[in-house]
Design goal:
- This protein is an all-alpha fold.
- It folds into two domains: 77 residues; 63 residues.
- Helices cover 87% and strands 0% of the residues.
- The protein is built from six helices and no strands.
- The two termini are 21 Å apart.
Length: 141
């Protein structure tokens, strides 16, 4: 699955960019939230398409230089690098959780209850994902 997603990243970005552009021409003179949707789709599609282009160049480089590809594969499976990545992921998870908590408090102070409720919901999903992944990994390992 991971390899398939990498292969189709460029295509997904292209589809989103096309959908945003098409939606901009089909739905004209809209107001409110829907007015930004074509621009958001186009921006996200462009970003994903750029990631796809980078992945294509990276894949070509690895195909042209098998020694470098072998070294990268060894580095990815090295226990020390795996441990470093896990610790960095945990730190990033905690920083994100703290940032969500701060944004929730700021939203409450600014009397923006809808944003605060949304952020609190995201925090709950964030924490629940940790609990679920820990349980799944305990069973797997």
């Amino acid at each position: 699955m991971k390899g398939k997603l990498k292969e189709h990243t460029f295509h997904l970005g292209f589809i989103l960019l096309g959908a945003g552009t098409l939606l901009k021409h089909i739905v004209s003179a809209t107001e409110g939230t829907w007015e930004a949707l074509p621009h958001v789709l186009s921006g996200v599609g462009s970003g994903i398409m750029l990631v796809g282009i980078v992945l294509i160049f990276k894949k070509r480089e690895m195909e042209r230089n098998p020694e470098k590809a072998r070294k990268v594969a060894i580095d990815e499976k090295d226990e020390r690098n795996i441990l470093i990545n896990e610790k960095a992921s945990h730190i990033t998870w905690m920083v994100t959780f703290c940032a969500l908590a701060i944004l929730t408090i700021v939203s409450i102070v600014m009397n923006n209850i809808i944003a605060a409720a949304f952020l609190a919901g995201v925090m709950l999903i964030h924490k629940a994902s940790l609990l679920v992944s820990v349980r799944l990994l305990e069973k797997k390992l």
